Amino acid sequence: MADIAMQIDIAAEPGTVYRALTTTDGVAAWWTTRNETSATVGDVNRYWFPDAPLSWDLKVTDTVDGELVATHCVGGPPPWIGTDVRWSLASTSEGTRVIFDHTGFATVDEMFRIVTLGWAQMILRLKEYAESGSAVPFFTH
């Protein structure tokens, strides 16, 4: 198994970061403008990307308002299916510490390396959006 693990501090309150991760408008402001996102356990969040023939479908498995969003990939490219994406948020004196984990990849292959770099770029967009309030989506439709 191969896992992606990252950490970043964001100068914004945990609630601001949480809403950016758990609402359609929030996700559209930093990741992809075409998405259906909820913080309701059991819902399947769907994300679309330009030129991709399918959606990435992540089932919400756990949430704690302002602290945690956990999902399990149930649809999308085969290397993603069965993986887990977890965002843990902790309040700091400067704002929010974000601990990000995308776990369960079968191998370290080309897709894994692309996804690792992609998440790093997305997390920087999340930081920029949460700190500024100005939308900076990576993917637009």
Write the layout of secondary structure elements.
Layout: E1 2-10, H1 14-22, H2 24-28, E2 35-36, E3 44-47, E4 56-64, E5 68-75, E6 84-92, E7 95-105, H3 110-132
Antiparallel strand pairs: 1-7, 2-3, 3-4, 4-5, 5-6, 6-7
Helix content: 25-40%
- As for the CATH topology, it is Alpha-D-Glucose-1,6-Bisphosphate, Chain A, domain 4
Uncertain runs are none
Strand order of the largest sheet: 1-7-6-5-4-3-2
Q: What is the number of domains?
A: 1
Mean pLDDT: 97
What is the overall silhouette? Answer: globular
Rg (C-alpha, Å): 14 Å
Please write the CATH class name: Alpha Beta
What report would you give on this structure?
By secondary structure, the chain is α+β, with helices and mostly antiparallel strands. It has a single domain, classed as START domain (Alpha-D-Glucose-1,6-Bisphosphate, Chain A, domain 4, 2-Layer Sandwich). It is built from three helices and seven strands. A seven-stranded antiparallel β-sheet has the order 1-7-6-5-4-3-2. The longest helix is centred in the C-terminal third of the chain and has 23 residues. The radius of gyration is 14 Å and the shape is globular.
